[in-house]
From TrEMBL:
Reaction it catalyzes: alpha-maltose 1-phosphate + [(1->4)-alpha-D-glucosyl](n) = [(1->4)-alpha-D-glucosyl](n+2) + phosphate
Protein's organism: Castellaniella defragrans (strain DSM 12143 / CCUG 39792 / 65Phen)
Active site: residue positions: D759, E788
UniProt-recorded name of the protein: Alpha-1,4-glucan:maltose-1-phosphate maltosyltransferase
GO molecular function, one term: hydrolase activity, hydrolyzing O-glycosyl compounds
Enzyme Commission code: 2.4.99.16
Amino acid sequence: MDSLARAAAEAAQWRAAGATGILAPPPWRTGGRPAGAAPLDADRSEGGAPVRDEIAEASRRLAAGGLSCHLEMALDRVARGAHPDTASAEWLRPEPLDPRTDPRTPREDLCTRRVVQAPPAAFVQAWAARLRDWSALGVAGYCFRTPQHLAAEIWHELLGALREADAGVRFIAWTPGLTPEELARCAPVPFDWTVSSLAWWDGRADWLAQEHARLSALAPVLAYAGRRRETRWLAAAAVSGEGLILDGPPDAATLGPLAHWRRRTRLPATFGTVGGRTGRATALVRACPGAGGALLALSAEGDPHAAADLSEWAGLLPAGPDDGRGVPPALRPRPGALLAPAGCALWQWTAPAPPGAPVPAAALPGDGRGLLAPRIGIERIEPAVDGGAWPVKRISHETLAVSATVFTDGHARLAANLCWRACDEAGWHEVPMQARGNDRWSAQCRPERIGGHEYRILAWIDVWAGFCAEWRAKFDAGQALGQSLAEGAQWLARLLHYADGAARDEPQWARVRQALDMLQAAADAPPDARLIEALLSAPLAAFLRDAAKPTFAHATAPLRLWVDRPQARYASWYELFPRSQSPVPGRHGTFDDVIARLPDIRRMGFDVLYLPPIHPIGRRDRKGRNNSPEASPEDVGSPYAIGSEAGGHDAVDPRLGTLDDFVRLVDAARRAGLEIALDFAIQCAPDHPWLRRHRDWFSWRPDGSLRHAENPPKQYQDIVNVAFYADAPPWRRKTALWRALREIVRFWIGHGVRIFRVDNPHTKPLPFWQWLIADIHARDPDVVFLAEAFTRPAMMYRLAKAGFTQSYTYFTWRNAAHELDAYFRELSQPPVADFFRPMFFTSTPDINPLYLQRHGRPGFLVRAALAATGSGLWGVYSGFELCEAAALPDGEEHADSEKYEVRQRDWHAPGNIRAEIARLNAIRRANPALQDHRGYLGLPCEAEGVLAYARYSAAQSNVLLVVVNLDPARAIDVQVPLGPIASAENLLTGAAEHWPDCRAHARLHPESPYGIWRLPGLPSHGLPSH
């Protein structure tokens, strides 16, 4: 509001609109300038009355109307000639020149004087006294404009003094338009709220989500909508902010329902946008794993109709069905996928319910032969993994497109449905299939829940469609229809006779009776065109299509579908060793040190924090630095040598903290927008408690010694492996061991962990993994398992089929353009893409790739770009952002490996690539094309050593061009032909680029060896569908 008195007078109007407070400038004297201007006298009004009296009266009136009073002001400036009680001369910046003679002087500075960045103590004392007095009169909070102009320590002193007097007072930092550098100056200040720049957003640009990430790192965000009153902008404010700030009079009819919905809806902290283009709606998403969320789809300026397709945004959405009961009616999605001009639609999800018990499969026709064989053939159902032996994988809200060959004898017309259901549903959801030619049929479904599903094809002879085709052909040929119409009448009469009595009273059956009457009447008169058109009507045909299902119906055996949460397909991982996170040199890190690093990791755009084993480390045969077989008393050992007198896999290393400390880390990470992933390593130190309790779980040599782990010529004396089967016929599995390992996973699930990175799963039996993962998923289907399986392709893929959600890949060793192109194509297309989700880690604690060793900082940029744009899943091991590449001679092992020692780092050391990583992750979040491993198309590029490719979303509405120089030490000019496309948006610079020759032009050099552009459409040769 522009006046506190006016706000008090309009209190009832604002309250009716759902407002909870009023924000207005103090009624101080400004010397005739507008309200809210810098004060000439901060203690007197324009009429000379004490400011405190007017504040007291306005606060009283607002409180009576159910509204709190908040005052907004800028403390870094005063009016020229300000009263000495308002500003002392020593507080103000010196002015060596008359500002009126300098054309660069901002207009406002002609009327004001600026306060120095760090004014003396008297400044804080004076303002603290004044604001404490106003708070005592009923002011609930203060909004400070231009907070970046005062030093952080000044704000600390002022806010601390005010909170000491009134712990309930709240402080808002006015942050619209502030640069990242200006926000960084405000970061140490304990403001309660920040304010977004939503009022200036065009409904498409990516910067809104990037700003939200920066602001939320300081404090929760209030969305400033300015004077925008359209429903879509108010809804955008409600979804993007923890509260709304509006200018001007409210519209109670629009604002009221939104304010009511937002007050009782707790949304996750994580916020993202996907800008709508080429007729697509823009999405604003608030979602968090396991916590539900909301999505607002809106039409940006100039879009007459915008398509809102949830499957396009599946990588960002929470699992589960839409729970729109609490959504304001005006915002509920309309039938169909199009928004009205300047319209919007709101979806809301609550936390998903656990799955129920599986329902036995319905009885289906068998594989009989001869007289019992089905008349309808259904073949080549796609997708199907190994003919249906293993589940196809999708994520919630992602479209499953199914096709099949369906045929029968003679000229009969067929109908077919795609039938699907969750494992705990008794009935089937059915979607009509469409004939695509040459007996191929297709349909799509979009499961919303996570967990086990199944789908099948149901086909039958569509008798009525057959009659209609026959009548049309004979009528057009001028042939007699008498007997054919009589047969149709006979069939309809029989259908009506067997129909359920109650159903016969429904309007659809009235249409059937009308058709029967027409057919019977046609026996006495030749048919005319009007009769044929009436009999061939689409509504009648659609109803009789389903009514005729029993006619030679044939259903295939169900195929399995596993639906994961979105983080199974799209996530950005950051790996660190907790013991290396202490800021104090030489001190062993703790979980609290990891908590302190969470904001820094989140600022780089990561959403999963992966921890190697956190359990007690064995003392017996402990390894020294660089895997030395001799360890000194100070050596910390390898965290993969699990177990000591302090406990085993269900304990934490005491040097890291306690189990309660770990749970605090899990909770803190969730609040920061990160999810903890924990290493599940099935290996033990020689002094693991299991060695004393379960000697039979391990392998022993003939001389009675314990067999340690080895991968000749490598020896791991500090690790012993369990034996999953008895060592003599009949080689039964060791059931107690299998159950103990399952209970370890359940233990950590009970302490908040829902993602497990599994160490070397290819060295353990496949039946064990199939049993364990199925058992865990039966109760907790949202748990993610990442396979660290650097092994042969057959085993790598079989682990994915057996249940692993994600897998490490050969990406680490694919360096040449042809190698990368072939591998990206293999992973992005069926059959692999239907069950295997690739994780692209740029390096690991075990692997220091030769490419990174040889190419320095430009090589790190190249591998980051390839990993971040090549798959929906990518990750970095801490130190990658600092371009660490020191290696032991003649190999891929890190020098001074963190597996065997504590390594502390300067996370902002010169030459780091933190900003580039943050930009890549921001681009990933704003573009669905990068939230999946599918949708890859290699593009021609004549430049040697350059890889060019397009990434595109399932609906092909989001298309990116990526060009990477794989020899980054050289500078090179690159051209990529794009058919008719002559313009694009450079996602690294934000600039629009125009290419009259329809060829992308890029200058790649060591500081920027890759480019990423968002294209307005598809290349001329088109893109294949998923």
